Amino acid sequence: MRDEHYSEFYLEFGWVLEDMSFLKEAVEYYEKALAIDREVYGEKHPSVATRLNNLGSAWKSLGDSRKMVECFEKAHRTFHEILGPDHPYTLSTKRSLHYLKHSSSSNQE
Known about the structure:
The chain is mainly α and 109 residues long. The protein has one domain (4-107): Tetratricopeptide repeat domain (Serine Threonine Protein Phosphatase 5, Tetratricopeptide repeat). It has five helices and no strands.
């Protein structure tokens, strides 16, 4: 079961689970999709970065800011390396990280 079709299935099922507030289960499916994409495409591919972004969003919903930031940072680095600094995906993850870091530091004050 190591092809991109299974990855898409796991991703979409993860979306459904996340939408239904089954967040831990969604994380499991996002992780499965990520593992498949890493195996199929390698570490430096837009699909891998997108899966990391999905996983980060699920961790955010679960309240795990450390894992969330870790996923978003990896996604941003990957988008930056393969798509460049001015690509919309790169800029979007950069803005998200900036917002998350500043909102979490102001919440700690």
